[in-house]
């Protein structure tokens, strides 16, 4: 019996076990995405969706709508990007769009969160996923631009389906809406055009999304 | 002005609009996956997960764990497969593993559901997704075998995390558990070995999963 070889095998086996243990721990940690609430109502208007449901929806939309991207995209990379795009919220929480104090510390809190969360993974995978998240945040590649188009379009589909329930609750003005949709055409002009004509204009015409000229 | 050319453009535009309309309708219909409950408790043990959350978890697991597949897999195809694998339940409902009457009509109900749901999409995309779902059901490719490994492993991770809460509630015997895990090693021997040693054996030893020899 070759003791040296056996010891090598044992090391390899325990290294593989350690790697897998790290991956399973991360997968378990990801479950917390299901506890993080968003502002969008599901299509039945009864409850609001959570980050995991939202990310699932974006991933299937990416697969179905990639043909409308302004530039060719790597579909697998974009799907991975949207599946994970919100996970920093597990530690950093969701920062509401009009929370000015919260927004000052947001980038720092999210960097810390990304470091801890992706640090649970084996180094190669953690570094890869952290880089994909940073690419999403930087919005400077075809994939990250299209991912933001998905992220912006999906809640509008749901809001239009519930007859504007979330828009009514928040008393949303057109200028606020447009501010949040700034990046949508950068990933897909066609999808932005569709969104505007079919999902937004009707709610502007009937007063659900409020005209800024009516502000006091 | 070339009237003929303009008319061609108009047709092309309205065809593209029709295609996109079909895709958005399908995306809206998919929202119903978030209403379909499963038997597995989330990691906090407070509520059970739904089909959309489950599919999101499988997709990220596929990305992270593909290195353990018995045979090389197409990761994108497998991710698409798991994202959509349960959507027939929107029409056909979830059939409980021990509902013998329900199981007789299950295949027929699910085929009808797949026909209606994928029929909402443009023909090329609908046919592609229906074929991927049929491949999942047939379990005869590396991708479909790995997808079933993900589908079987994910609830075991959550059940182990909640200290076996769902197993206790259902009074699960080892033979029942093994019956449901029959396909797990076919996609990945390594993941099955890990699952058995780390996530199952401890719950067999402490009696949470019941030994069949104790059956009356
Ligand atoms: Ca988002």
Short précis:
The structure is a homodimer of 216-residue chains. The first copy, chain A, is built from 11 helices and 2 strands.
Domain count of chain A: 1
Strand line-up across the major sheet of chain A: 1-2
Query: What is the average per-residue confidence, as pLDDT of chain A, rounded to a whole number?
Result: 92
Biggest protein-protein contact in the assembly:
A-B, 47 and 47 residues
How would you characterize the largest beta sheet of chain A?
A: 2 strands, antiparallel
CATH names the topology of chain A as: Hypothetical protein af1432
Query: What fraction of the residues of chain A are assigned to beta strands by DSSP?
Result: under 5%
Bound molecules: calcium ion
CATH H-level name of chain A... which superfamily? Answer: Hypothetical protein af1432
* CATH class category label of chain A: Mainly Alpha
Radius of gyration of chain A: 21 Å
What's the total count of β strands of chain A?
Answer: 2
In whole angstroms, the N-to-C terminal distance of chain A is 87 Å
Multimeric organization? homodimer
Helix content of chain A: 55-70%
Structural class of chain A: mainly alpha
Low-confidence stretches of chain A: 1-6
């Amino acid at each position: 019996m070759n003791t040296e070889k056996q010891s090598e095998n044992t090391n390899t086996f325990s290294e593989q076990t350690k790697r897998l243990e790290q991956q399973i721990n991360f997968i378990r940690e990801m479950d917390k995405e299901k506890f993080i609430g968003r502002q969008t109502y599901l299509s039945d208007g009864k409850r609001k969706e959570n980050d995991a449901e939202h990310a699932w929806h974006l991933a299937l939309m990416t697969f179905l709508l990639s043909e409308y991207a302004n530039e060719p995209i790597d579909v697998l990379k974009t799907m991975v990007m949207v599946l994970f795009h919100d996970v920093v919220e597990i530690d950093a929480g969701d920062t509401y769009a009009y929370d000015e104090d919260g927004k000052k510390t947001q980038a720092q809190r999210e960097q810390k969160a990304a470091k801890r969360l992706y640090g649970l993974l084996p180094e190669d995978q953690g570094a890869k996923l952290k880089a994909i998240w940073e690419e999403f945040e930087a919005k400077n590649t075809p994939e990250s631009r299209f991912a933001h188009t998905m992220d912006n379009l999906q809640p509008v589909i749901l809001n239009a389906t519930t007859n504007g329930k979330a828009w009514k609750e928040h008393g949303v003005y057109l200028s606020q809406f447009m501010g949040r949709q700034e990046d949508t055409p950068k990933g897909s002009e066609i999808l932005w055009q569709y969104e505007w004509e079919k999902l937004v204009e009707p709610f502007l015409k009937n007063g659900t999304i409020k005209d800024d000229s009516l502000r006091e």
